[in-house]
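Write out this protein's structure.
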Amino acid sequence: MIFLSRTLSLFLVVLALAVTACGVSATAVPAPTSAPLAVATSVPVAPSATSVPTPTQAAVVAEREVVLAVSRKLANGEKDPYFTHSSLMVWESLVAVDGMLTPVPQLAESWEVSEDAMTWTFDLRPGIWFTDGTPFDADAAVANIQRFMQISPRPSPFFTFTIARSYGDLAGVSKVNDDTMEFQLNTPNPSIVFTMSNFFSSMFSPAFFAENGDFTGIPAATGPFKLTDWKQDQYFLLERNEDYWGKKPLVKNIRVRVIPDSGARVSALLAGEVDEVMELGALAPAEAKSLEGRDGITVGADPVSISIYLAFATDRPPFDNVELRRAVAMTLDRETIVEKLALGYATPGKSLFSPFAPQWLSPKGEPTFDPVQAQTLARSALGGERVSATLIFRSATGQARPYKAIGALIQSELGKLGIDLELLSLEKAAEREAQTSGNWNLRFAQQGWANGDPDFLMARFLSSDGLYNKGRKGGYSNPDVDTLIGAGQAEQDPKKRFAIYERLQEISVQDVPVTPLYHVHLTYAFRDTIAGLSHRVTYQPTLDKIRLVR
């Protein structure tokens, strides 16, 4: 048996020696090339607007409900694979990821893999209980995996769950003893601890499983908070888990309000109706900049594993011409986009991969800014003619992305190449309809990286049956790429696996089915009534670190 949790560090060292790590610079935020977090629940220290309150002060204010504002719903109900987003810190996983998107133990304590990578054995943390008083043990963990097998595939606004993407060709799962479980595979999966991490091994009390795999009410879990009440698109009420196995949160009650409109969120913050505007989509760059320097307000910007891309419809004119796609990718000034439009709250696009995982980055996957060469390629592709194209994007309501401004810049630059670009701003439902029906030529794509496994992104972006090409009608298909993706999923040797994904990054620059624009720094703001809140790389706010100041 190979003890993987002991050898994972060696795995990363080998990969790191094979690549040139790309760093990220930002003001008052940790660099992605810093050391991994020691444990799954450790987080960077948030900027503090005030000094730490005395114990007497803390005892007085700790009973007050903390009120936070978000842009989107973080609970989705009984049919969702996870019921809530990880941002509410209600459930935990067998395997989590650290600050470099590396798998680390959470509810699992350690794991082993057989020599043929067909059997994985997980030792579970003993003495943990769900909030309904039932034990988290091998029986419960096995029941959770069996539920996932039953409901797969199951859509979610967070991440669609499929057993194949999360566990590979899973034959079954079984209990070894009270604190040990085993996964049996039909084909080797050397990267299962990556693919099952975070959402995809979330654990719930089996007492809340319906026969069809839905939940029966709000499921009990093991996290530092429990969800006591919620109303769709309005609020979520969190209460501290007094029996939590780890370090308990500092506040007892949190109300999370859903305020879809960005301006209304800012107004609520300034009026003192909420203590913080947080989480994904919290603040547009211009709003964050406008709040900087205001008395009693602290603005934060944490790099997270979310990136913004420009996707091409590669199977229809005009971008069925690869030279024209290359011309567009080369004419995009990503530095200007970050500095002038994202107002510095981002890192220019370095790769299809987030710079938080330098173990997978290769300079061969970095796009080139070369407007002169872009003109040459466009002349060759168009022969002096002009063509028309449409760029679709989500309307500004509720969004923290300056899509309209970025679209205007792209429109101007593509005009120089001979492309007359129409900008089409759509509401959410209309945008999704346009994507799935193929009524677009270019589109903005926001993509999170939930588990740190390179296949999670490459299969979506480059596989002929991946989400971007089949589901969203990007139309890119390359048999050699499909073969490489299959090889990457099965390869056990770290050096060989890196070489596969390096080649895929290189092909992504050559074929340009999608190109990175920037890697997001999540902007948020809080009043001097609280301290201790920041965001982890997986854009999960550190609710467990919040402390009340007044």
